[in-house]
């Protein structure tokens, strides 16, 4: 009975063990499937990582290539900028040369006009000589011809012909005119030296520096825009900056226009520096342009300030006679003061 009772229990134990083994096998099969999925996922991730690494390397390579291209483009741009600056400089140099040639052409034109006037004077002198001869006044050559006729033409004329006579007179007139102009120029130079050493702050006639910008408009603007203690400094700095600009031969804010068949030089409103100047105000613009015109008139090639005797009352160049009269007046006033200070010396 005891052994019969033990067999069913053994069967039950075996059944439970088999059931447990089946359960474990099922779990293990599930785990193996999960492991397979995880393994496949890891392989996919590794493949993607390799791909991403390769793409990253490709991106870095492209970035390096782009960087090298940018450096090459930067160098090319720098070269082009340098070439452009050289072209601008060359263009400005040619503009200045063209301006100088234009100025020389104007001088030659004036010289031609003077020669025409001289020729007219010669013709006038020749006409006067003919007039004298036609009214019965004999020249030396005419007297010589009469002598030759009287003595049968045996005498050789030793005096110059009438044409040579008129040419000599004409040349003498030209030489005298040149000498007068030279003396007048020397007198003006000496008067400029004298007036430069005089105290003439209120005189009608005094030295004006042609091409020097008047600082007063700059002071007026600076007083409105800056405190009093720095307004003079700002005005002087701004005025000095524009003075350097107009003395620079490379800045030529002019253009040529054709009017009545002749070329005329006028300000170029499209010039960038002139546009900047206009933004400073009308009074400053007028002061700078006036100085620029004076510099072009008195020293276009050198672009430097030139002293001139100036009649401030009438706003024009003073004549030599005006300057001498003023000096004579000064001497007279000085002598009067001297006599009043020392009556016994009279």
Automatic annotation (TrEMBL):
GO BP field: gene silencing by siRNA-directed DNA methylation
Alphabetical list of PANTHER family matching this protein: OS12G0572500 PROTEIN, RIBONUCLEASE P SUBUNIT P38
Top-rank lineage group of the source organism: Eukaryota
Entry keyword set: Coiled coil
Lineage: Eukaryota, Viridiplantae, Streptophyta, Embryophyta, Tracheophyta
The protein, known as: Factor of DNA methylation 1-5/IDN2 domain-containing protein
Residue intervals of the Factor of DNA methylation 1-5/IDN2 domain: 208-335
Coiled-coil region list: 42-125
């Amino acid at each position: 009975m005891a052994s019969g009772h033990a067999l069913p229990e053994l069967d039950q134990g075996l059944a439970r063990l088999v059931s447990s083994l089946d359960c474990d096998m099922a779990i293990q099969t599930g785990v193996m499937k999960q492991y397979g999925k995880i393994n496949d996922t890891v392989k996919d991730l590794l493949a993607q990582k390799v791909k991403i690494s390769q793409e990253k390397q490709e991106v870095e390579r492209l970035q390096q290539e782009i960087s090298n291209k940018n450096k090459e483009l930067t160098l090319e741009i720098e070269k082009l900028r340098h070439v452009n600056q050289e072209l601008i400089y060359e263009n400005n140099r040619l503009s200045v040369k063209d301006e100088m040639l234009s100025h020389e052409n104007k001088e030659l034109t004036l010289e031609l006009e003077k020669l025409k006037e001289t020729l007219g004077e010669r013709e006038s002198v020749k006409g006067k000589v003919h007039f004298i001869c036609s009214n019965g006044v004999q020249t030396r050559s005419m007297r010589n011809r009469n002598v030759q006729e009287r003595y049968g033409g045996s005498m050789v004329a030793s005096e110059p012909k009438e044409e040579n006579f008129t040419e000599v007179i004409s040349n003498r007139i030209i030489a005298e005119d040149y000498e007068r102009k030279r003396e007048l120029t020397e007198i003006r130079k000496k008067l400029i030296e004298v007036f430069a050493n005089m105290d003439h702050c209120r005189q009608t006639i005094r030295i004006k520096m042609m091409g020097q910008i008047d600082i007063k408009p700059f002071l007026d603007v600076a007083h409105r825009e800056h405190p009093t203690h720095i307004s003079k400094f700002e005005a002087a700095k701004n005025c000095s900056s524009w003075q350097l600009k107009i003395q620079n031969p490379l800045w030529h804010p002019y253009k040529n226009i054709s009017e009545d068949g002749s070329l005329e030089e006028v300000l170029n409103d499209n010039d960038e520096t002139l546009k900047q100047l206009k933004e400073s105000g009308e009074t400053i613009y007028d002061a700078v342009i006036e100085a620029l015109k004076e510099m072009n008139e008195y020293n276009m090639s050198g672009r430097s300030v030139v002293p001139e005797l100036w009649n401030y009352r009438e706003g024009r160049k003073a004549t030599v006679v005006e300057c001498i009269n003023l000096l004579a007046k000064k001497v007279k006033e000085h002598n009067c003061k001297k006599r009043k200070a020392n009556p016994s010396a009279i």
